[in-house]
Amino acid sequence: MTSSTDTDLRRAKVRPRLHDKPIPVLVHAGAILALGLGAIAAPFLVLALGTRPVSGGPIWDFSMGLGFGALGLAALQFAMTGRLRWITHPFGADIVYLAHRYLSWGAVILMLGHFALLYVFYQPALGVLNPFEARWELTAGRVSLACFLGLIMTSEFRKRLNLRHEWWRSLHLVLAITAMLAGIAHILGVGNLTDTAAKRTLWLGVTLGFVAVLLHTHVIRPWWLSRNSWRVVANTEERGGVHTLQLAPEGAALKRWKPGQFAWLKVARSPYSLIEHPFTISTAPEKGPELAFSIKPLGDHSSALTKTEIGARAYVDGPYGAFSIDRMHDAEGFVMIAGGVGITPILSNLHALQARGDRRPIILIYGSPNWEEASFRDELEAMKRDLDLTVIHVLQDAQKGWEGPTGFIDREVLISHLPADTRGWPHLLCGPGPMLGTLRAELADLGVADRHIDYEIFELV
User: Fold this and answer.
1) Which fold has domain 18-224?
2) Which of 143, 235, 241, 318 could be stapled to 182 by a disulfide with Cβ–Cβ 3.0 to 4.6 Å?
3) Could you give the CA distance from residue 96 to residue 306 in angstroms, rounded to a whole number?
């Protein structure tokens, strides 16, 4: 038996570092948001503090403001997608990518507003629309707008267009760089609000900033990865078609790794390749330095990874994400809800609690298509020896004789298996999007505060 004193001592030793506690994280998040707002506001501040150009009227000024705001917002997207940990840390990379998606729409709407106002009220300023006859700086603006529209359309309708992920990503990068360069060329060429050294310095800074992020993302980081490769040492088939790849480091091991985080994985490819996907690290840091990724074949790339041969070289870019018990060190217990392969980040957090001898109560509700496809069910059962863990399996297609809940994880399942005193516990959710949306609404209706609901977004793009 383990005494409560021993457990408390072990729990104290594994408490997260100071910057993972609530107040520092909020301060960090606030600073990032302030910097983002400052980046968008910078063109207007430079304009306001400098020599004001002659106004063309309120509509003209508003149109110019939309153009400035649009390009400032577009430049910000390079930082948001550059996997800069100081940006992703307080929010989680999945939330940053989701914000990027919506802010990209905002940038394009501002661009369309800029063009529409000029077209309706100041059409002579647009000149001829034929790119072979128009002034180069005006054509550059239209090229930028077309590329940004292309970015949005190919991203939103990638699956309908049958664009393979690697093709889409290459196209996305080319369109983004072209759009940004063309947009800056348009502003500098028109010269309407770039007539002073301060204003030109601003746009030079924007250009150098987004180039620096590109170099960091596509040159410096891959170079570092090339010097710290990994080797696949095991490929284990689990229930439900899931395969667990175990990787051993050939260079530096993963740093600042927390349970529940994920990494971008490249196997048998160049570190500079754009073909990579994010997967949860399904083991806990206490079981490192080796890593394990549990992958279900849901597409061409993931299917190929499940067939990886032992000895294959791999590159791991991570860790990222905030779906971790290390941010919940004061919790009295945990509610964890997983659907399908969404069990992997849950499993990682459970491994960490097990390694730390943490006896706080855990209720896990785990939805699977059927009993045979309930991945890691034997491992979860074995964990009960070391954890105060209750596992409720919910099967969509239950065989005769099954006595547990069937169908989907719904309000009835939540009421039946989550006592009232768990409402203040952290609720960790991971699974398909529709499942998350339904459960968040049901939990809120049952009295669980939004701050107690944490969830992992499956698809970043």
Assistant:
1) Four Helix Bundle (Hemerythrin (Met), subunit A) (1.20.120)
2) 143
3) 28
Residue with tokens 């990724």: 293
| 273 three-class SS | coil
CATH-assigned architecture of domain 230-320? Beta Barrel (2.40)
Rounded Cα distance between 261 and 286, Å, is 13
Specify the domain boundaries for CATH 3.40.50.80 within the chain. Answer: 328-456
What letter does residue 352 receive in the DSSP assignment? H
pLDDT tens-digit map of 175-195: 999 999 999 889 888 876 666
Count Cβ neighbours within 10 Å for each residue of 345-380 and write b for 16 or more, e otherwise.
bbbbbbbbbbbbebbbbbbbbbbbeeeebbbbbeeb
Strand order in the sheet with 313-320: 277-280, 262-267, 313-320, 230-237, 243-249, 291-295
Q: Are 163 and 154 in contact (CB under 8 A)?
A: yes
At the topology level, CATH places domain 328-456 in Rossmann fold (3.40.50)
CA distance 331 to 425: 6
> Which residues belong to CATH 1.20.120 in the chain?
18-224
In angstroms, rounded to a whole number, what is the distance separating the alpha carbons of residues 171 and 151? Answer: 8
> What is the location of CATH 2.40.30.10 in the chain?
230-320
H/E run at residue 219? none
What are residue 142's DSSP bridge partners? none
388 vs 456: CA distance, rounded Å: 24
What are the per-10-residue average pLDDT scores of the chain (461 residues)?
32 36 70 78 69 73 86 86 82 81 90 92 86 89 94 90 86 93 88 69 80 91 95 92 93 90 92 89 88 84 88 94 87 94 92 93 95 91 94 91 90 94 94 89 94 76 48
Instruction: Tell me the helices (H) and strands (E) count for the chain, helix number first.
Output: 15, 11
266 is written with which tokens? 């490249």
**DSSP for 26-74, written as a single string:** HHHHHHHHHHHHHHHHHHHHHHHHSPPPPP--HHHHHHHHHHHHHHHHH
* pTM tops 0.70, yes or no: yes
